[in-house]
Amino acid sequence: MKYLPPGAPDSVVDVQPVYQNFIGGKWMPPVSGSYRVNLSPATAKPICEVAESTPEDVELALDAAHAAKDEWGEKSTAQRAAMLNRIADAIDEHREMLAVAESWENGKPVRETLAADIPLAADHFRYFAAAIRAEESEISEIDKDLIAYHFKEPLGVVGQIIPFNFPLLMAAWKLAPALAAGNCSVLKPASPTPWSILKLMEVLEDFLPPGIVNVVTGPGGQIGKALAANPRIAKVAFTGETVTGRLIMQYASEHIIPVTLELGGKSPNIFFSDVMSAEDEFLDKAVEGLVLYAFNKGEVCTCPSRALIQESIYDKFMELALDRIARIKEGNPLDTETMMGPQNSAQQLEKIASYVEIGKAEGAEVLIGGKRAHIGGEFEDGYFFEPTVLKGHNKMRVFQEEIFGPVLAVTTFTDEADALAIANDTLYGLGAGVWTRDGSRAYRMGRAIKAGRVWTNCYHQYPAGAAFGGYKISGVGRETHKMMLDHYSQTKNLLVSYSSKPLGLF
Amino acid sequence: MSTSGAAVTGGQAPAGRLSATRAAREAVKRLCAALGGPVMFVQSGGCCAGSVPMCYPAGEFITGAGDLLLGTIEGCPFYIDAALDTAWNKPDFTLDIELGEPEGFSLGPAAGQHFVARSASCTTRQDERP
C-alpha cells in the first residue's frame, strides 16, 4: 500500500505550515522570529517550516528544564517508570502517523519505520521503565559502626544532540535513560530532520510534565555550542560525526561534565566459506546479511560497508548477493513495497557520487550501481542513488572512509588471521558482522575484532538490553543498555558513623 | 594505516596539498570580514557530516600533536587528523563551496551554503556528475 504524503488530504499525518520550539510544555516561537524550510528528500519539496533558533532559545529551554528538574528528580522510580510507559503507549497508539512522518522527512522506507524505528522507540521507553524500577544500590559494612550507603542521584539537566538518520529512535535512545534516571533534557534534533520529533511532542504534550523534555530546532553553527558548552548542563550526549564529537568533548571539559559520544564507523561484515556449506535458510540469511548495507539507504554509523568474503566462496556468494541487490526496490518511501528510499539531502547524494568516482580512480571495480537513480514522476528530483558495490582492497579510500550511503566495498580474505587483520585495519570500531556456522570461530573472531558491537550471524538488530557503542574513534560510552543509567546519574555516598568515639587525632 | 599503535605525529604537510577555488577564497574573505577575524577548517571524517571541512572561528577547535596543518587559505588554517590523512592515502584537497546547509556546528560561507573539500582523485565537476 502507499501512504499519502503528510499534509495531503486524508493523509494520516497533519502538517501545519509552521512549527515552533517545544519548551516548558508549550510551543514557543523562536526569539529571533526566524524560520527555515524543511524539505522532503523524496521530492526535494517543502514539508513545513521550523524554528531557526538562536542561543536565546537554548537559554529559554534550559530555564524550563531547570524549573522542572527538582520535581521530576524527586519522583519515585515507580512514578517515573509509569510516565515512560505512558510515553511508550502513546508512541504505539500513533505508530502509523509517526512512521509516515519520519519516513517522509528522512527518506527511509515506511516499511522500516513501521517495523523497526517506531516499535523500537516505544520499546526503549519500556525497557528503561523496567530497568529503573529494578535498580538497587549497594551498601557496604565498612566496620560494625561505619556503613557506606550508595544512592544514585540525577545529574539535573542534560544536553542531547542527535543525528538525522534515525530521528525518532535516536531521540528515544537519548531521552529514555535520561528521564528514567530523573533528569530533564534539552534536545537539539539534526537540521535536516527537525520535524518528526515535533510530531512526537504533539503526541506527548497532553500528559508530559512540562519542562522535562524541551526541543530546540536550528542550525548547529548557531545553537550547537550554546547547548554543548553551556554551564547549565550537567552532561552532554552526542551522536554524529567525529570532528563535532571532538569539539563537544572539548566543550564538556570546560565545565568538567561527563560526555558520551557515538560517532562514525566503517564496519566490516565477514563471511566465512562455511556459510555456503548448505543451501539452506541460513545461507539465505547470510546473503541478506551482506545486502543489509542498503538498510536505511546506508545512512547508518554501523553500516556494514565493508564486506570481507572468504576467497573460496567469493564468486558464488557474490553472485547470490548481486542478484539480491539487483532486486532492491527503490522509490517512494511511503510505499510499503519500497526497500530503499532517497538519501537524506542533496549534499549526501553529491558526496556518495564523488566517492564512487574516488573508488574508480583508485582502481575499484563497480560491480553494480554507481550512479544516481531516476525514479521518475513526482520523485524525479528526489535524492535517490542506486545500490552500489565496489570491489577493491582495504587500503583504498573507499574502504577507509565513511561514505554514509548505499555503497558497499567488497574484498576477499584467505583465512581467519587475514580476515581479522583486514577487519581491524580501520580507524573506527563501532560495529562488525561475523558469519560462520562454526561457533568457536565466531567466538574467537568476535572477541578479537576491535568493535563495540559484533553481530554474530545477524546484523542491524538493535534491541534494548544489548549494549551499543564504539571502540577507538567511534565513541565513548554505551547506549541501549541499563548501564546508560550510570551515565545519567551521579553516586552519592553517605558514609555514616554509628559510633560516638572521637578519632583521637585532635 | 598504523596498526601497531605507534604515534602518528601531525605537524605541517609539504606545500601544495591544499588549494582553493576562487569562489571559496572570496567566501572565506567575506566570512572573515563578517566575523571580524580568521576562521579555521578541520576536515571531517565522514558519517552524517559528509566528509566536509568543518569551519569554526580560529582557535575554537583545539588542535594537538595529532593534527596536521595542510595549509592556509586567505590566512585561515586547514587541519586534518594525521591518522585520518594517512588512512585516506594523503590526497590533495581543494576547498570549494556548495549549496546546502553546513553540517555539525560548522559555519557556512553564506546562508544556504557550505564548504566542501574536493580530493585530487575526485575531479568530477557539477555538470559531469551522474
Question: What can you see in these coordinates?
Answer:
The complex is a heterodimer of chains A (506) and B (130). Chain A is 37% helix and 20% strand. By secondary structure, chain A is an alpha/beta fold. In chain A, helix 2 (77-93) packs antiparallel against helix 4 (110-134), helix 3 (95-106) packs antiparallel against helix 6 (196-204) and helix 9 (281-291) crosses helix 10 (314-326). The termini of chain A are far apart. With 130 residues, chain B is α/β, with parallel strands linked by helices. Chain B contains 2 helices and 8 strands. A 5-stranded mixed beta sheet of chain B has the order 1-5-6-3-4. A 3-stranded mixed beta sheet of chain B has the order 2-7-8. Classes of the chains: A alpha/beta (506), B alpha/beta (130). At the A-B interface, helix 7, helix 8 and helix 11 of A face helix 2 and strand 8 of B.
What is the element layout, followed by pairings?
The complex is a heterodimer of chains A (506) and B (130).
Chain A: E1 21-23, E2 26-28, E3 35-40, E4 45-51, H1 55-74, H2 77-93, H3 95-106, H4 110-134, E5 139-143, E6 146-154, E7 157-161, H5 167-180, E8 184-188, H6 196-204, E9 213-215, H7 220-228, E10 235-239, H8 242-254, E11 259-262, E12 268-271, H9 281-291, E13 306-310, H10 314-326, H11 346-361, E14 365-368, E15 388-391, H12 397-400, E16 407-413, H13 416-424, E17 431-435, H14 439-448, E18 453-456, E19 475-476, H15 484-487, E20 489-497
Parallel strand pairs in A: 7-8, 7-10, 8-9, 10-11, 12-13, 12-17, 13-16, 15-16, 17-18
Antiparallel strand pairs in A: 1-2, 3-4, 5-6, 6-20, 11-19, 14-15
Chain B: E1 11-12, E2 18-20, H1 22-35, E3 39-43, E4 53-57, E5 67-73, E6 76-81, H2 82-87, E7 93-99, E8 113-119
Parallel strand pairs in B: 1-5, 2-7, 3-6
Antiparallel strand pairs in B: 3-4, 5-6, 7-8
